[in-house]
Amino acid sequence: MNNNNFAFSKINYILLAVGIVIILAGFYLMSGDSTTEAAFNPDIFSDTRIKVAPMVSLFGFIFIIVAILWPSKKGE
Predict the structure, then answer these.
(1) How far apart are CA 17 and CA 52, in angstroms?
(2) Over 60: is that where the pLDDT of 76 sits?
(3) DSSP string computed for 19-70
(4) Within 10 Å of residue 22's Cβ, how many Cβ atoms?
(5) 10 CB-side CA count, 13 A
(6) Which of 5, 53, 62, 64 shows the smallest number of beta carbons within 10 Å?
(7) Quick one: pLDDT band at residue 2, thresholds 50, 70, 90?
């Protein structure tokens, strides 16, 4: 198979995988116990869930955009 037919190079796929892992880490930080009718869980308002996790996920999405736009060195 000819590598010249692919839109992305190997580095693009590696960067995409890293971006997906970063997004999944952000979603994992957002997860946890929820509040039920029987008991209130104040952890739903923690800084990790409200501030850190969305920023980690946003960074992952931006990283994926950079990975897609990363120039391949096919022309060299």
Answers:
(1) 21
(2) no
(3) HHHHHHHHHHHH------SS---GGGG-HIIIIIHHHHHHHHHHHHHHHHHP
(4) 19
(5) 1
(6) 5
(7) low
**DSSP single-letter state for residue 72:** P
Type of residue numbered 20: I
For the chain, domain boundaries: 3-69
Q: Global pTM?
A: 0.82
CA atoms within 13 Å, Cβ hemisphere of 31: 6
Considering only residues 3 and 49, tell me which one the structure prediction assigns the higher pLDDT: 49
Cα-Cα-Cα-Cα dihedral sign, residues 14, 18, 23, 27: positive
Per residue in 34-73, pLDDT tens? 888 888 888 888 898 999 999 999 999 999 999 999 987 7
